[in-house]
Write a structure and sequence with these properties.
There is one protein chain. By secondary structure, the chain is an all-alpha fold. It has one domain: Heme oxygenase-like (Heme Oxygenase, Chain A, Up-down Bundle). Helices cover 79% and strands 0% of the residues. The longest helix has 28 residues. The radius of gyration is 16 Å and the shape is globular. The chain starts with a helix and ends with a helix. 40% of the residues are buried.
């Protein structure tokens, strides 16, 4: 029998493939993405990661058992590691991420994430955060399907295709399966997060910096 998290992912697989086929992700895949677009994306993603780390920490405080506390804190730690990687990217691209303000797509995603974490139980909080990790694992694995390419974005692809990202996705999905009490609410929450991911990539591609 398929788990709830597995079903949620399957229900949104078309959106995942839409992200995979977006010109922004294709540009990362073949190395053709304009570095200015990538720099802007890194700055906005850093804003989102800071909010995600806070959301994980809040979810840890709300977790009903010690296993949940440990798991959410571990996810927060991994997010801080990812943020450190973004800081390195930003330095190489001459971007001061400390001065960056969230753009509309980023702000909508952050506001949604924090609303789900503050205003709902820990199962819905986990559901709001799960699509991001699962989608990035999917994208990394897809882009590295024929081996890790050699171009300016190889490190990004290598990071998100690594087994550690898959392990984080599975750990978070385990929390969804463990804590969600209302599958109907989880369905709409997961879907909205996936739409936010799609919008995030589109904004990085389309909007002016």
């Amino acid at each position: 029998m398929m788990t709830l998290s597995g079903q949620l992912w399957q229900n949104n697989l078309a959106l995942a493939h839409s992200c995979r086929n977006h010109p922004f992700i294709q540009g990362i895949g073949d190395g053709s993405l304009d570095p200015r677009r990538f720099a802007r994306y890194i700055a906005q993603d850093a804003c989102f990661l800071e909010a995600t780390a806070r959301a994980y920490s809040l979810a840890a405080a709300k977790a009903p058992d010690w296993e949940g506390v440990k798991a959410f804190h571990a996810l927060a730690g991994a997010t801080l590691d990812e943020l450190h990687l973004h800081e390195q990217y930003a330095a190489s691209l001459n971007v001061d991420i400390q001065r960056v303000m969230p753009e509309p797509a980023t702000r909508r995603y952050i506001d949604f994430l924090m609303a789900m974490t503050w205003g709902h139980d820990v199962g819905i909080a986990a559901t709001a955060m799960a699509p991001c990790v699962r989608l990035y694992a999917f994208l990394g694995q897809e882009l590295a399907r024929n081996g890790l390419p050699e171009h300016r974005y190889s490190h990004w692809i290598g990071t998100y295709s690594a087994p550690g990202i898959e392990a984080l996705a599975q750990r978070l999905e385990g929390l969804v399966d463990r804590y969600v009490a209302l599958p109907e609410q989880a369905t709409s929450t997961y879907r909205y997060a996936m739409l936010c991911e799609q919008e995030f990539f589109h904004a990085a591609w389309e909007e002016e910096g």
